């Protein structure tokens, strides 16, 4: 599973609990996109970035 290159956000794990309280494994995947990003020297680089980092302006698209 991919992780965000900025905030290191990845998948979270827990339990799916039914009405009868039986538990099974559950995975929540974070919304991570592969985008071209401008680096410090002005070059473009492909990275995995979560959408919350994209929206907050922590990364600038190339």
Automatic annotation (TrEMBL):
Entry superkingdom: Bacteria
Protein name, entry field: Large ribosomal subunit protein bL28
Gene Ontology cellular component list: ribonucleoprotein complex; ribosome
Pfam families tied to this protein: Ribosomal_L28
One annotated GO biological process: translation
An example Gene Ontology molecular-function term: structural constituent of ribosome
Species, as recorded: Blautia pseudococcoides
Family, as annotated: Belongs to the bacterial ribosomal protein bL28 family.
InterPro entries assigned to the protein according to its UniProt record, in alphabetical order: Bacterial_rp_bL28, Ribosomal_bL28, Ribosomal_bL28/bL31-like_sf, Ribosomal_bL28_bact-type, Ribosomal_bL28_sf
Alphabetically ordered keywords of this record: Ribonucleoprotein, Ribosomal protein
């Amino acid at each position: 599973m991919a992780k965000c290159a900025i905030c290191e956000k990845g998948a979270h794990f827990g339990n799916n609990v039914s009405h009868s309280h039986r538990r099974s494994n559950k995975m929540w995947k974070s919304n991570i996109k592969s985008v071209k990003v401008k680096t410090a020297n002005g070059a473009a680089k492909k990275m995995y970035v979560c959408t919350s980092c994209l929206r907050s302006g922590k990364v600038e698209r190339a």
